[in-house]
Amino acid sequence: MTVAVDTEVTALMQCLQRQRDHVLGAVEGLSDEALRRPVLPSGWSCLGLLQHLTLSVERLWFRAVVAGDPEVIDMVGSQDSPWQVAPGLPAGDVLDSYRREASLADAIIAAASSADAELAWWPFPGSEWRLHNLRDVLLHVITETACHAGHVDAVRELIDGQQWLVNT
Fold it and tell me: Is the torsion defined by CA of 14, 15, 17, 21 positive or negative?
């Protein structure tokens, strides 16, 4: 791996971590009830969004697509909607799972040979849309996480009026 690739992957990982921190910061201090409360007509909750980011973003893109983990690949498509959190599942467990999955993803990224490392598995065979390497996956996950950070910002403000980040 060249120094330029190290610098690129490091910069992308830092950007991804800022988005993860934004998501977690935006829900910090919400009660279990507030975390589970659906605010928008689509019915998802902050906790559901976090579970989606855990299972359908971090786990799917890094453990399945980048690393080719057969156990994770076998789970793809067989799970209930990640947006719906089981009523008995503690909110802290969902938050811990997100942090743990992000840590596993970071280890996979750090172990990659370069930003150009080929993907081990692709979940959409036959689709015209395709990511080609670790760089593409990192950019995709950064974009999706940032998009959802904006969603959770708006939902948090609707729940209790709090704003996580305000530039005045």
Answer: positive
Q: Is 136 exposed, middle or buried (0-12, 13-18, 19+ CB in 10 A)?
A: middle
Task: Band the pLDDT of 2: cuts 50, 70, 90.
Answer: very low
Q: What share of the chain is helix, strand, coil (3-state, %, to 5)?
A: 60, 0, 35
> Cα–Cα distances in Å, from 81 out to 37, 49, 122, 167?
16, 11, 20, 35
Q: For residue 166, with 0-12 CB atoms within 10 Å meaning exposed, 13-18 middle and 19 or more buried, which class applies?
A: exposed
**77-88 tens-digit pLDDT:** 877 889 999 999
- Give the residue from 57, 60, 50 showing the smallest Cα distance to 25: 50
